[in-house]
Amino acid sequence: MSKKIKNENTVLPEPQKKKRAFSIDNLLKNNKFIFVISLIIAIVIWATVTPDRTITFSVPLNVSTEGTAVGQLGLEVVEGQGQKVDVEVEGKWYALSSLSANNIRLTVPFTNITKAGEQELRVSASLTGVTASDIKIARVVPETVKLTFDTVAELPFTIEPKMVGVTASEGLIAELPVLSEDTVNIKGAKTMLDQIGKVVAQVEVNKTLSRSESYTTALKVYDKDDKPMDLSKFILDLKEVTVTQPISKQKDLKLNATFKNTPEFYQKYPLATSVSPSTIKVIGDAEIVDSISSIELDAIDFSSITPDQNKFTYAVSLPKGVRSVDNVKSVNVTIDTSGIETKTVDITTFLSNNVPEGKAVTADVQSKSVTIAGPKDVISSIDATALNLQYDLSQLEAPTGSHVVTALVKSDKYKNVWGVGEIKIQVSIQ
Q: What total number of domains does the chain contain?
């Protein structure tokens, strides 16, 4: 008999597992599945049979008369806006959980309001932006609210600056405060606006100042009995202003007459001149005032001076930040022209200055009749051939062609003679 020899290296195939078929019966026997299903069913039953809950929201009242009959009368709610109303909402917990005060709208009836005044009105609440049907408004507290209706207006009021406890250092002066804005527009109920007595910009300084200082301060409104008013009842187009407290210095300054186109002799020996007033009292920033020793008036053109024309009026020009204490705007200047005489002569010599490079200039006249002025002894015996008319071409825009220019009387011999009036001559430049 032959023996079968088993090969130790032979791999036997694993037996195949049988697939378990899905079975409701087996699922119902699964304890984990039964637990989950039971929990879900319990929650659904609890949510269904649980009694309704209530939640209270504090909602601010904000109503508008726009588009209503009351609005057409020009009436608006001027008091009572923003007061809190407690609204109790009832419903299922899952519906209430997503609700907020923004989902509640408050309204009041305007139907019986025909004039300004306080009204007590029933307030109603409704839900907005809510789709759930199992919630409702349960109660509103208070049931009525008081609102004041009035015509709203906007009026301008002058701002009064008030600096408390200001003193200036020795030698200086604390002037009236200066505001960044002089008026404020206030909007509110007409009856409240009629009660306003003043608007004040007050600053508590309480110290000695050696220079000007600025402060930013809030505006305050007072009634006609000088009692502060509630700013919440108004709308101001300015909440605050800047108040500057000027600390200034006074000084007396001499007024000096000045001249232009002055003959050489009178540059060294000026004509006797009087200015009325001769001094001016100024006030302004201490540093600026200290830097000024006198005020120079606008220059008097010598060509305008004659024996008969020797009085002139000139405006006083002061540096920025400085003003006249006595509000002096102009002064009178009188020139002593005694001993001065005029004479008409013909001048035949014409001299040009600042001729454009490469250009030739000729006067279009051979002789010019002009009036001259000077000391009597000089004028009476003057030699007209020693006089010439000089003109400057530096200000001409076009360097060629025909031009009318202004000329001055000059002389190497007569240093104390000048031409009277504006002297014009025509020249050609080629």
A: 4
